[in-house]
Amino acid sequence: MGFGADIKTKFAEVTFGATYANSKENVERDLTIDDGQDAETTDAQIIYSRWRFLIGFSFPFLDKMQKKTESK
């Protein structure tokens, strides 16, 4: 899942957003955990989650410079 927004001002455009992903999987594989007491053999379970964040800036001063050079 993800979301984002774009904010335009007189001086710059600001973009920000975030995404979140998660997953869970059972791996049918014997995994022995020996913690010094009774060893336990069980399937492995993989749990994955990730957040990603985005921040971007755009400054229109290059467009203004290009328009000035084209007008000359």
Explain what you see.
By secondary structure, the protein is of the alpha+beta class. The chain has a domain at 1-33 and 50-64. 15% of the residues lie in helices and 65% in strands. The radius of gyration is 26 Å and the shape is rod-shaped.
Which structural class do the helices and strands define? Answer: alpha+beta
State the oligomer.
single chain
The residue-averaged pLDDT reads: 82
Strand order of the largest sheet: 1-2-3
The major beta sheet can be summarized as:
3 strands, antiparallel
How helix-rich are the residues, as a percent range? Answer: 10-25%
Q: What gap, in angstroms, lies between the N and C termini?
A: 49 Å
Element-by-element helix/strand order = EEEH
Low-confidence stretches: none
Q: Tell me the total number of β-strands.
A: 3
How much strand content do the residues show?
Answer: over 45%
- Rg, Cα atoms, Å: 26 Å
What is the helix tally?
Answer: 1
Shape label: rod-shaped
Keywords:
72 residues, alpha+beta, 3-stranded antiparallel sheet, rod-shaped
What's this entry about, in short?
By secondary structure, the chain is an alpha+beta fold.
Topology of this structure?
Elements: E1 2-8, E2 13-33, E3 40-58, H1 61-71
Antiparallel strand pairs: 1-2, 2-3
